Fold this protein.
Amino acid sequence: MENEAPRHYIDLDIYGDSAIYKMPRYWRDAVSKYTEDTLLAYGTVPWHINKVRYRLTDAYKVGDVVNILRLSADIGHYIADANVPLHTTENYNGQFTGQYGIHGFWESRLPELFSEQYDLFTGKAIYLDNPQIAIWKAVERAHLALDSVLTIEKRLSKKIKADKQYSISQRGQSNTKTYSAYYANAYHKALDGMVERQMKSSIKLVGDMWYTCWVDAGQPNLDSLIQYEFTEEEIAFRKEELQRWKETNIFKSRVHEH
């Protein structure tokens, strides 16, 4: 899908010091200041989430079950990405700091090992008076955590011997070099709950965004949509769409190795 990859991140550091506070919060203002080509080159996630919000609201208005489900999933994915500190930097996989692979370490390995310990209950969803600003607040929190993500791992890598940092694990039918449970545990403890906090922030904002879209659509009665059954053609189309997504590998510019 054209221009899909930039919708999952924003490289704030390329815009200079304190960019998180200076970046225009609204798309037209950002385009006016930096040009659309520049924004597409360095990521558009906070603005694209808002765009999907409008589409989801419209889907609620007309009772379009297929797009309600699809756009709800899409906006959840983008919001989750916006809450990942490494999605807010050009150094997204530690490639500029000698920490190649840290993206998968933080985003995948730690949750795989420790998420069962997390309390991810966030309470009731609330209405967002200004969804675009709420999105940017999430990006801001993520970006402010970035320095800790990198410096803590760098410090640990100097304290813990290399032979204790990695292990071989089986993924599918192949063996893969990955961060060891011992090293992951040390990193997870040093982060002091960061991964859990960011996951919880994601969940809360997703719920709030879904609820806000529904309210803005006029709070339509969704009971009549529950019994909707997908046609064979719709199911076949979704399968083909998934296959195309896998084949095109749209995230090849953002490979997140472990």
